[in-house]
Amino acid sequence: MITDSRLARQTAERLIGSRAQLLKFQCLLGFDGFVDEIFHVVEQRQSPTKYTPFASIKGFGTKVTAAAGKSANFEIVPQAKKLGGNGPIMSFALSTLGAPVHYVGMLGYPEIHPVFSEFAKRTKVYSIAEPGLTQAFEFSDGKLMFGQHGTVHEVSWETLKKRLGDVTFQKLWNQAHFIGMVNWTMLPHLSAIWKRLLSDYMPAKPTTRKLMFFDLCDPAKRLDADLHAALKIIGEFQQHNDVILGLNESESQHVAKVLRLKKTPSNPKGAASLAAAIREKLELHTVVIHPVQYAAGADAQGEAFVTGPYTAKPKITTGAGDHFNAGFVIGRLLGLGVAHSLQLAVAASGFYVRHAVSPNREQLVRFLQTL
């Protein structure tokens, strides 16, 4: 296996001259959209302007558990208000790296919500519903997200046809080289949309295979039977397309359980083996798994894993997985193999959590050269 530093240098070299190539790939993504409000939870306040936040979910959880049968009061301090949702964050990261993006989703209806104004300048947007609201409480070891998701029920095949139009949507679909459909868990009608896309938009003999990406987004709250059915539908897209399924660590374990696959060790090699097993079971092109400190993937050429540029003190964690996904897709669009695409993905995510901004190509090249 190539050492990570050599892999990073090779990936940087491939990215340097990619501008013209990336501009050729039209990307279409959907269908969620949220306004993200990010908070710290105060553990101790020293003065009106100085406080110590809870460092970990475990520490905060201990305080919450201790309040059972009593009560507790927690102060939250807003850190940022920004665009949210797997689709918009991934799309923004793709556009920053140089890919032309069209986005269909919950960005405000009939007017675009102000939090998406910069996003609408960088991409071509088609909004079909009001955004949901997510309040994310960030800690060094993860985040707790509380959502108000009333408008997700509006994201349906009927709404797409009514507010976007069948002709417009089908044209976007047909012209796209890459299609990403994410956040299955929060969009209750997404499986039904997928079925209609398969029945109405799939040509009998497509001239070219599209690259497609699916992200489930923490399916633990959905029924296992629904998840199993969704995975089967995702597999059906593979017939005429090259399908990537992206999973974080807990999602991969949940999917493995639903598919009745053998347990694998919680380490890079184990994750790569699990990615290969899921890929084989669902007959997909590629499966990627991204725990916090490394990432693994598998396609027909084999398995690979890379260690990530982990930091114990991230500036932001909400959206890290979406930046990983964007980086991986950019790698695949550029024709990179799994290992180099994983390296690009962990670098995109690593830069984002350190700086709380999406990297452009030049920034990502420089970051890769330091690894």
Task: Characterise this structure.
This protein has a single domain (4-40, 80-370), classed as 3-Layer(aba) Sandwich (UDP-N-acetylmuramoyl-L-alanine:D-glutamate ligase). 42% of the residues lie in helices and 23% in strands. The protein is built from 14 helices and 14 strands. The protein has helices at residues 4-16, 19-22, 57-66, 86-96, 117-122, 157-164, 166-175, 190-200, 224-237, 249-258, 268-282, 320-333, 338-355, 361-370; strands spanning 27-31, 34-45, 51-53, 76-84, 101-105, 124-127, 132-139, 142-148, 178-182, 210-215, 241-247, 286-289, 294-299, 302-307. Strands 6-5-1-9-10-11-12-13-14 form a nine-stranded mixed beta sheet, sandwiched between helices. Strands 2, 3, 4, 7 and 8 form a five-stranded mixed beta sheet that branches. Helix 4 crosses helix 12, helix 6 crosses helix 7 (166-175) and helix 10 (249-258) crosses helix 11 (268-282). The longest helix is centred in the C-terminal third of the chain and has 18 residues, at 338-355. It is globular. The mean pLDDT is 95.
